[in-house]
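Complex record, two chains
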Amino acid sequence: QVQLVQSGSELKKPGASVKVSCKASGYTFTSYGMNWVRQAPGQGPEWMGWINTNTGNPTYAQGFTGRFVFALDTSVNTAYLQISSLSTEDTAVYYCARDSRYFVFDPWGQGTLVTVSS
Amino acid sequence: QSALTQPASVSGSPGQSITISCTGTSSDVGAYKYVSWYHQHPGKAPKLIIYDVSNRPSGVSNRFSGSKSGNTASLTISGLQAEDEADYYCTSYSGSTTLVFGTGTKVTVL
């Protein structure tokens, strides 16, 4: 079955970087785009952007430029989210979600909790 | 882009029907058929329940239905069940390969 499995929780200090992975299985990885979504504690989801898994071209939503990088390793069907210069405001659950149709997210990964604390 | 506007909470008794609204603008909800709905149970990832305004993915109960009029999309849950208690979010394509989420609605089954 189609499945996205994300890497485990991370605890980072302010100023550090983090890399979250999202491994896909059950479908042709390069046939569907991959989205990234942030959900801060007690808040709704926020779309961060997406990456074209065929071309590698990323699109970043407003507010997610500069410190955020979407990357791929198509040899292992995995998408990555890297965040640099972390601050406490980056504490959130980060989800990957396959673009199953035009901006339709299905399925989602289980989420990765990133906690930024000194 | 600004988030789409949803009511903070909606409640209903088992068996009743409830409707959640999702209000955007002529640049997002009003402009495209690409409105989706997701529900999210506590501690879980969101799950798709409606796409392209009114289509249900395979395996999703037909108690969920979607519609759109102008700049407002709606999700109706009929025959409300205890398992429907969750947070519900709409999304809309908003042009230039961007997407916006709704503010979210907490559904309570009384």
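Note: Strands of chain B lie at 9-12, 18-23, 35-40, 47-50, 64-69, 72-77, 86-93, 99-101, 105-109.
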